[in-house]
Amino acid sequence: MSVEILKDGDQCNVIGGTHKGKSGTVTDINTSKTGHITVTVVQKNGDRFKTLGKNVVVIKST
Questions:
Q1: CB-CB neighbours of 59 under 10 Å
Q2: What is this structure's pTM?
Q3: Closest CA to 10 of 22, 31, 27, 34
Q4: Separation between Cα atoms, residue 32 and residue 46, nearest integer Å
């Protein structure tokens, strides 16, 4: 299995956590003080939410 690096604009599916089952576009990628990667996902309807990078799988890379 290959691991893709998250980039702004990537289409993704959320596979874990509170937002499991949702999908959207990755917009804001940050690394917290503890070293965890957080991303903001914007859904088609404009709703946005934050989740951990480990909970996200890239569908289509830009």
A1: 11
A2: 0.86
A3: 27
A4: 25
Token digits for 39?
Answer: 């991303």
Q: Rounded to whole angstroms, how far apart are CA atoms 16 and 19?
A: 7
Give per-residue pLDDT as tens, 32-57: 899 999 999 999 999 999 999 999 99
**Cβ-proximal residues to 53 (8 Å cutoff; 6+ apart), any chain:** 6, 29, 36, 37, 38, 39
Express each pLDDT in 2-32 by its tens digit: 456 889 999 999 999 999 999 999 999 999 8
